């Protein structure tokens, strides 16, 4: 027992020599005494934590090293550290050690428990609140788990040796990609829609009326059929190479375009619509009218809907396009229903009862050339194609529109057909009424808005008892806006557009007008793009003064439409006439110092009739010039040259004002530089303060730790 103790424990003096200075000083201050229960418990917890740390270190090693490095074997091979804490003697250890068997049993049990806790990830550690090492062990295990979790994201294999633009044995060009928003695609859909309408409207009549399959009709329809089939085939190729956007980038690789097309439902419908049923089905022995086998060509109708959507978005008369589409759709339904009516009549027997064709038509009675009735039975075998179709179309229109009186059906199939016609007619009537009402409401929306504003102004004038000439001028102003389609708020109309598109649209409309101003010639395009967004349209009535002599100049004007006069103070003498494209007031918004007139208007400008003027304010110009100092310098120099040419600039006063302005700018720059240096110094002081506080906190924490150790040994 003594041998084991001497072998496994380090002498107290040796521990004192190997201890840190602070700990050694504490050991010298406290004399040795027998170890009490609290000290023994702390010693046991210290060994427990060391064993757990050894287990964690073992599981941190790679698998290849775990077989060579076992924490139990390593711990057994190494000399065990002493359980003696500072201030404990060897005699105290013998008194509290117990027997060797009990010590080994406790060690084995402790190792088993710690191993289970380390393998389980420290998820269910017992008495963690009581142990001062519980929270630290859990944090170490969690960090160990997160450090060894590797998430592998499969990356697509890209073969860099394959050219994405290579298609089979030739190289695909980017110019071959069809732009779905371009004019070519729109016109192609329009041409393809003609073929779709032909197949939709003529397949059923050719299967019903035999006259369309003989003579000249047969040759014409044969050519048209295969011309339309060829267009269907070309449209499949167009769909295969129709471009699209992927993450906002146009896709131009042919394989991607083809893959997207064949995965869409459009490709299935296109292939089914082009399937040669007119060549295949006759060999199957199915007893159907020959031309009805081409009914699969109608599956291409979705392309017609695409054309209509593009047409509605491109045309300047969308309401008219909707009405035309609605009327043509209704006429097409009447046409197909007429063909079905004649087919049912032919299957039931022409003239077999009062409901079937020809019903109440006058040509059902056989009349001889001399207007005498023949003795032949009533028949309709010799009716012309026009007679058959016109009566059937009339019957279909009366039925679907629910107007007129028709013969009552006499057979069950006839009752069923008429009932379906009534149901479809009700739906069509409701659709027509709804669409017509919405279209008329959209057409009258502008008029209603105009009348609403005009009535509000009139009510205000009546409330304030304003009558006479002023009220007449207000009414004339509204009438001018309505008659000339000027009742459009540009800011409100363009508010729904992104800033980039709004700027591009405004540049397209107003840039040419703005470039006519001499002070803006040669400046940066970015400045002009900013200024066109700041132009405001103003309308002046006849006799209105745009500006008067002596007014402070705050705006410049560009005449877009109308005629202006520069008149004297008496309002009679006319000095000049300004027409479309004329510009005035541009010098006043430059704030040039030294102008002899003191930046005031030098003449009276009056509108002769109704005039439309673009107005640019001084504040808007200088706000835009903040970002363009070079353009600002050019504009000021050009403005000074114009004033000097007209002898309107006092050069000495301008030079003095420029010197004062430059001196003031230098002072401001000096102050700004000083403020920047002061901010830098304050930032350094704040950083030094933060560093000092961190060091002070660290020292306080060390002192607290020393005090805690001192108090623990005292008690």
UniProtKB/TrEMBL annotation:
It is a multi-pass membrane protein. GO terms for cellular component: intracellular cyclic nucleotide activated cation channel complex; plasma membrane. The chain crosses the membrane at residues 184-204, 216-234, 271-293, 323-344, 415-437. GO terms for molecular function: cGMP binding; intracellularly cAMP-activated cation channel activity; intracellularly cGMP-activated cation channel activity; protein-containing complex binding. It is found in: Membrane. Keywords: Coiled coil, Ion channel, Ion transport, Ligand-gated ion channel, Membrane, Transmembrane, Transmembrane helix, Transport. Residues 1-22, 47-101 are annotated as: Disordered. Residues 1-10 have a biased composition (Basic residues). Residues 519-642 form the Cyclic nucleotide-binding domain. Residues 668-706 form a coiled coil. Gene3D superfamilies: 1.10.287.70, 1.20.5.300, Helix hairpin bin, Jelly Rolls. The keyword Membrane applies. InterPro entries: CLZ_dom (IPR032406), CNG_cation_channel (IPR050866), cNMP-bd_CS (IPR018488), cNMP-bd_dom (IPR000595), cNMP-bd_dom_sf (IPR018490), Ion_trans_dom (IPR005821), RmlC-like_jellyroll (IPR014710). The keyword NADP does not apply. This is Cyclic nucleotide-binding domain-containing protein. It comes from Ramazzottius varieornatus. The lineage of its organism: Eukaryota, Metazoa, Ecdysozoa, Tardigrada, Eutardigrada.
């Amino acid at each position: 027992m003594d041998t084991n103790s001497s072998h496994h424990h380090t002498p107290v003096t040796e521990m004192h020599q190997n201890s840190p200075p602070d700990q050694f000083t504490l050991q010298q201050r406290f004399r040795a005494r027998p170890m009490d229960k609290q000290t023994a418990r702390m010693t046991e917890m210290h060994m427990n934590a060391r064993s757990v740390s050894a287990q964690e270190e073992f599981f941190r090693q790679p698998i290849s090293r775990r077989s060579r490095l076992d924490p139990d074997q390593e711990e057994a091979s190494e000399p065990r550290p002493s359980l003696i804490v500072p201030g404990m003697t060897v005699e105290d250890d013998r008194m509290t050690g117990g027997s060797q068997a009990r010590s080994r049993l406790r060690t084995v049990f402790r190792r088993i428990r710690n191993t289970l806790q380390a393998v389980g990830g420290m998820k269910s550690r017992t008495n963690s609140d009581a142990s001062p090492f519980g929270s630290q062990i859990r944090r170490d295990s969690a960090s160990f788990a997160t450090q060894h979790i590797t998430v592998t994201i499969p990356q697509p294999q890209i073969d860099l040796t394959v050219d994405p633009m290579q298609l089979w044995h030739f190289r695909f060009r980017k110019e071959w990609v069809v732009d779905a928003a371009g004019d070519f695609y729109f016109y192609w859909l329009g041409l393809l829609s003609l073929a779709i309408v032909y197949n939709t409207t003529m397949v059923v009549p050719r299967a019903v009326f035999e006259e369309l399959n003989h003579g000249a009709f047969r040759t014409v329809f044969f050519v048209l059929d295969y011309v339309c089939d060829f267009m269907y085939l070309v449209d499949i190729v167009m769909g295969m190479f129709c471009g699209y956007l992927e993450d906002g980038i146009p896709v131009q690789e042919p394989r991607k375009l083809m893959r997207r097309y064949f995965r869409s439902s459009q490709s299935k419908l296109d292939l089914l619509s082009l399937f040669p049923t007119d060549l295949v089905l006759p060999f199957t022995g199915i007893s159907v009218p020959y031309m009805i086998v081409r009914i699969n060509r109608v599956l291409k109708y979705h392309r017609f809907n695409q054309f209509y959507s593009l047409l509605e978005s491109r045309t300047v008369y969308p309401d008219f396009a909707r009405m035309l589409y609605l009327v043509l759709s209704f006429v097409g339904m009447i046409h197909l229903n007429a063909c079905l009516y004649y087919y049912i009549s032919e299957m039931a027997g022409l003239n077999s009862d009062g409901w079937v064709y020809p019903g109440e038509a006058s040509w059902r009675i056989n009349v001889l050339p001399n207007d005498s009735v023949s003795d032949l039975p009533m028949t309709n075998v010799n009716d012309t194609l026009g007679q058959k179709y016109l009566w059937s179309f009339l019957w279909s229109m009366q039925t679907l529109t629910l107007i007129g009186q028709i013969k009552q059906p006499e057979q069950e199939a006839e009752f069923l057909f008429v009932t379906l016609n009534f149901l479809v007619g009700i739906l069509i009537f409701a659709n027509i009424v709804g669409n017509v009402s919405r279209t008329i409401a959209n057409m009258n929306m502008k008029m209603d808005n105009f009348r609403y504003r005009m009535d509000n102004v009139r009510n205000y004038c009546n409330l304030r008892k304003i009558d006479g000439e002023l009220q007449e001028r207000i009414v004339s102003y509204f009438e001018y806006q309505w008659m000339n389609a000027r009742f459009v708020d540009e800011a409100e109309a363009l508010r729904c557009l992104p800033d980039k598109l709004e700027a591009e649209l405004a540049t397209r409309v107003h840039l040419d007008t703005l470039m006519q101003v001499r002070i803006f010639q040669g400046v940066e395009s970015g400045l002009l793009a900013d200024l066109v967004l700041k132009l405001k349209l103003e309308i002046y009535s006849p006799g209105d003064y745009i500006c008067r002599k002596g007014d402070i100049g705050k705006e410049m004007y560009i005449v877009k439409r109308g005629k202006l006069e520069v008149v004297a103070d008496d309002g009679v003498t006319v000095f000049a006439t300004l027409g479309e494209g004329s510009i005035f007031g541009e010098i006043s918004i430059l704030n040039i110092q030294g102008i002899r007139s003191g930046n005031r208007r030098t003449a009276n400008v009056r509108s002769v009739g109704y005039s439309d003027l673009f107005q640019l304010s001084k504040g808007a110009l200088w706000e835009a010039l903040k970002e363009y100092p070079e353009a600002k310098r050019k504009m000021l120099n050009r403005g000074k040259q114009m004033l000097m040419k007209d002898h309107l600039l006092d050069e000495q006063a301008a030079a003095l004002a420029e010197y004062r302005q430059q001196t003031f700018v230098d002072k401001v720059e000096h102050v700004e530089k000083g403020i920047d240096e002061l901010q830098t110094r304050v930032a350094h002081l704040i950083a030094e303060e933060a560093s000092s506080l961190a060091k002070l906190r660290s020292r306080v924490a060390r002192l607290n730790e020393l005090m805690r150790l001192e108090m623990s040994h005292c008690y």
